[in-house]
Automatic annotation (TrEMBL):
Domain 2Fe-2S ferredoxin-type: 2-86
InterPro entries in the record: 2Fe-2S_ferredoxin-like_sf, 2Fe-2S_ferredoxin-type, 2Fe2S_fd_BS, Beta-grasp_dom_sf
Organism listed in the record: Vibrio gelatinilyticus
CDD domains to which the protein is assigned, alphabetical: fer2
Gene3D superfamilies listed in its UniProt record: 3.10.20.30
Source organism, top-level taxon: Bacteria
Pfam families given in the database record: Fer2 (PF00111)
Molecular functions (GO terms): 2 iron, 2 sulfur cluster binding
Name under which the protein is recorded: Class I ribonucleotide reductase maintenance protein YfaE
């Protein structure tokens, strides 16, 4: 399974059938999002290395090196930066 490195700090295993946003959530992170559908751009982050595939249509503006994790899956090991997230509080 591809590895996702986040903000040069955290590494998680990607689940190939989930989007990057879902994968981060399952790993206990709480990344910023709003629409979960490629419209709002709230989840936008920088793809430092690796390849992703889009499973939805990106309506929000992204620069060349930016992706929308809510509608992407990891194709290879990837490195993401500028992800606004918190560690979920465990009940
Ligand atoms: S959450 Fe809206 S574009 Fe990803």
């Amino acid at each position: 399974m591809p590895t996702i490195k986040i903000n040069s700090l955290t590494s998680i295993e990607s689940n190939p059938s989930n989007t990057l946003l879902e994968t981060m959530e399952q790993a206990g992170l709480d990344p910023e999002y709003n629409c979960r559908d490629g419209h709002c751009g709230a989840c936008r982050c920088t793809l430092v290395s690796g390849e992703v595939e889009y499973v939805g249509f990106a309506m929000a503006y992204t620069k060349n090196n930016e992706i929308l994790p809510c509608i992407c899956r990891a194709k290879t090991d990837i490195e993401l930066d500028d992800i606004a997230h918190q560690i979920k509080k465990r009940a």
